[in-house]
Amino acid sequence: MPKTLIAVVLLAVSALAQAGSKSIDLPPDGVQLKPSILPGYAKAQAICAACHSAEYMQYQPPTAARPYWEAMVKRMKTVFKAPVDDADIPLIVDYLAKTYGNEQSK
Ligand code: HEC
């Protein structure tokens, strides 16, 4: 595929993705992680907020289940060298699933 065609396809895909999502007003500052009494909250604050704001978590599907979050945390560790102890992964995954995923109490 020529480069321009690829660009057009990418634009169309991102336009479609935006059309399907709700519009959200972003707060001016970096989004903070949602506070929680779960032990994974402090871990996530210390580890996950180092590189990016909590917007990234906020934009994950609320239907995302535990394995999704686990894969995410492991990807952050292996791909981006996030300093996550293997022992802390279940705590962080627990916090993420219950705060941003399909285990949120409504
Ligand atoms: C060393 C830096 C670093 C740390 C620490 C880090 N991330 Fe990331 N994260 C990134 C980068 C870079 C991206 C964007 C790249 C991409 O989209 O593939 C990203 C993207 C994301 C996304 C967006 C979805 C995606 O697949 O791109 C989520 C969700 C996320 N991170 C969650 C986490 C969580 C949870 C933690 C804590 C366990 C964490 N991150 C720690 C660097 C980091």
TrEMBL record:
Keyword flag Repeat: no
A single MF term (Gene Ontology): electron transfer activity
The keyword Signal belongs to this UniProt entry's keyword annotation: yes
Keywords: Signal
InterPro entries xrefs: Cyt_c-like_dom_sf
Protein name: Sulfite:cytochrome C oxidoreductase subunit B
Signal peptide range in chain numbering: 1-19
Highest taxon of the lineage: Bacteria
